[in-house]
User: Fold this.
Amino acid sequence: MSDFKKRFRFRYINHDEAEQAADIEQICFPPHEACSREDMMKRIAAAPELFLVVVDEQTGKLAGFLNGLATDEERFRDEFFTDATLYQPLGKNVMLLGLDVLPEYRRQGLATQLVEEYTGAERKKGRRSLILTCLKDKVSLYEKMGFTDRGLADSSWGGEEWHEMKFVL
Assistant:
């Protein structure tokens, strides 16, 4: 077993980790892009089975996470960030709402591994695709992970211009 696999464990979030996840979101995104604490709590309560975390086994703390909401919708819209009631448990698509890795854990492959673990799990559940938005400078990163750039998204979250990316499962 590699040191990486010994040090990090991937699993779904526990409800008592919601505050820690909300803190990580505030660290990983600028204030105008970060999900509010309240919306993060609602998201975790609504869909913990779509909130994959990576735990540092040396500290017992979360190093990062990837989360989303399932839906039958085909296009991303900003309301997914703020309205957990849009969650459809049997939805064929997952709108990814945040890939967060704490700064001290970056450049170790955790983001890529989170995406790989997540895609594998959602494929097994019979989902059709994962959809996310990202800034232009992150498009190539997500393309390397297997996402396709669908062009500019119908999103103005945080006053930014976003690209919509899709991963077909």
Remarks:
- The longest strand covers residues 61-71.
